[in-house]
């Protein structure tokens, strides 16, 4: 399926669970407006398949809830097996909905995700952002370490990636306007 519009910029957001990726993506979208920008999630096709095959609530899986956490480990294992066959399978599925000038990908988790976007859209359109928050702040936001989730590729593959265009520390709600301004400068 061909995209209606080739995006001018694709903003790839990465970071650990509860670092604020979705919060910042949503806030940036509000600032830019839905006429110019959109958010896509690589996890959406995974969660859609999981919901259909298991009879689960897709909206709950897509949200930031305890419901999703019940299935996270199984979804990671299933999606990793699919990626072994085709590393771009979920990125490609998510990209079928791109139809804005600016595309925000809120859940980049693997080097192969970055590779897919660079190979597909060209490095000149891609902006990579790592969002960081300390374990203490993430814990305040509801994060708890889980073996088999927080110590596997889906959480750790980009830990040693060094080619970020921007690294943001998202720990204080008073800094949100500054973080959003930095993101806006990056996509100009």
Please explain how this structure is put together.
By secondary structure, this protein is of the alpha/beta class. It has a domain at 9-43 and 100-187: 3-Layer(aba) Sandwich (Rossmann fold), CATH 3.40.50. The chain is 47% helix and 15% strand. The protein contains nine helices and five strands. It has helices at 21-32, 43-54, 58-62, 66-85, 89-95, 111-121, 135-140, 153-156, 176-187, and strands at residues 9-15, 37-40, 102-108, 126-132, 166-169. It is globular. The two termini are 28 Å apart. Pathway: Isoprenoid biosynthesis; isopentenyl diphosphate biosynthesis via mevalonate pathway; isopentenyl diphosphate from (R)-mevalonate: step 2/3. Keywords: ATP-binding, Cholesterol biosynthesis, Cholesterol metabolism, Cytoplasm, Kinase, Lipid biosynthesis, Lipid metabolism, Nucleotide-binding, Steroid biosynthesis, Steroid metabolism, Sterol biosynthesis, Sterol metabolism, Transferase.
């Amino acid at each position: 399926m061909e995209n209606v519009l080739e995006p001018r910029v694709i903003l790839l957001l990465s970071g650990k669970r509860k670092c604020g990726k979705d919060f910042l993506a949503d806030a940036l979208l509000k600032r830019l407006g839905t006429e110019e920008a959109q958010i896509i999630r690589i996890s959406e096709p995974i969660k859609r398949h999981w919901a259909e095959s298991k009879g689960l609530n897709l909206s709950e899986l897509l949200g930031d809830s305890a419901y999703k956490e019940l299935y996270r480990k199984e979804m990671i294992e299933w999606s990793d097996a699919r990626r072994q066959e085709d590393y771009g399978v979920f990125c490609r599925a998510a990209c079928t909905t791109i139809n804005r000038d600016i595309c925000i990908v809120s859940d980049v988790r693997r080097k192969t995700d970055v590779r897919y976007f660079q190979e597909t859209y060209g490095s000149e359109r891609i902006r990579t952002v790592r969002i960081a928050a300390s374990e203490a702040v993430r814990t305040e936001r509801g994060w708890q370490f889980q073996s088999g989730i927080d110590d596997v590729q889906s959480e750790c593959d980009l830990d040693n990636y060094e080619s970020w265009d921007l690294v943001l520390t998202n720990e204080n709600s008073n800094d949100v306007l500054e973080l959003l301004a930095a993101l806006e400068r990056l996509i100009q």
